[in-house]
Write a structure and sequence with these properties.
Elements lengths: L1 E6 L4 H16 L2 E9 L10 H32 L6 E8 L2 H11 L4 E6 L5 H6 L2 H8 L4 E5 L9 E5 L4 H17 L2 E8 L7 H10 L5 E7 L3 H11 L4 E5 L3 H7 L2 H8 L6 E4 L2
Parallel strand pairs: 1-2, 1-4, 2-3, 4-5, 6-7, 6-9, 7-8, 9-10
Antiparallel strand pairs: 5-10
Length: about 280
């Protein structure tokens, strides 16, 4: 069964992303694993061992109680959105969030991670100034980042940005699996600049390879890649944008002010970051 890890702090941003995680679980016939982490405070060295234990026991019990209190709320959200049948399990851990995510991915053979994003003025800062950004750049599994303004909706169109590299084919095949489950179409975008080194033969090869799949290709000549992607999202009514995280610098180049200004104010869509 496909396993989806959903880290949550029970905030409104996380609860919004939770609905997307449930939707993905239903789509891929998967199991949702809820992860909540907490950190122990730094305690003055003058405290005795007994005092340390009392503090840690209190914090651990407090977080366990909160976790138990939040679970009925999450079950209610699932029921209200028609996802009550989704299989769910829970993890409560202490320590750094990203470390806990990495450990869970390894131990539980996680296939996807779904996380909410928020907390900064620009979308690049939102993505990379948060744990979600760190997850995108450091995990080896696909990460769905759900901006706080992205309301859950049925996926009809998936955007896929590509450089037409050989490694991109594997990522596209994985996206096609999701598209087929959703009965959606994948629209692949390549922004052709004067520095582009692909040829018409490469484009034809890809079109031939995926001719029997629900895939459309868009080769758009432009020197304004960010604006072209933004226009593509709007004009093609993209519900989810899939990108391959070649390296952090690629994301930094792509996600700057003008590209996501509108997204930062609520007209946002989920981003699926896949790794080469």
């Amino acid at each position: 069964m496909t396993k989806i890890l959903f880290p949550t702090d029970f905030s409104n941003v996380a609860n919004n992303a939770y609905v997307h995680a449930l939707g993905l679980a239903k789509l891929v016939h998967g199991e949702l694993i809820l992860l909540h982490t907490y950190e122990f405070p730094i305690v003055d060295s003058q405290f005795g061992l007994q005092n340390y234990k009392e503090i840690y026991d209190t914090i651990e019990l407090s977080n366990l109680d909160r976790f138990k209190d939040e679970l009925p709320k999450l079950r209610k959200i699932a029921e209200e959105n028609g996802f009550e049948a989704i299989k769910m399990s829970h993890l409560l851990t202490d320590g750094d969030l990203l470390h806990s995510i990495k450990e869970a991915v390894k131990k539980d053979n996680i296939d996807y991670v779904v996380m909410g994003t928020s907390g900064a003025s620009g979308w690049f800062e939102k993505l990379f100034g948060t744990n979600t950004g760190e997850a995108i750049t450091s995990l080896n599994v696909p990460v769905f980042s759900i901006p706080e303004g992205a309301k859950y909706t049925k996926i009809a169109t998936i955007g896929f940005t590509t450089r037409f590299r050989e490694k991109d084919k594997v990522a596209l095949q994985n996206v096609i699996k999701i598209a087929k489950a959703a009965k959606a179409v994948v629209k692949c975008l390549y922004v052709e600049t004067i520095e582009s080194d692909n040829s018409a033969a490469v484009y034809q090869e890809w079109e031939t390879l995926f001719k029997d799949e629900p895939v459309q290709f868009f080769i758009i000549p432009s020197e304004y890649a960010k604006e072209t992607i933004e226009d593509f999202i709007t004009s093609q009514e993209i519900d989810v944008l899939t990108m391959i995280s070649y390296k952090r610098t690629f994301f930094k180049w792509l996600f700057t002010s003008s590209f996501t200004e509108e997204m930062s104010y609520g007209s946002t869509i989920p981003i699926l970051a896949m790794h080469e």
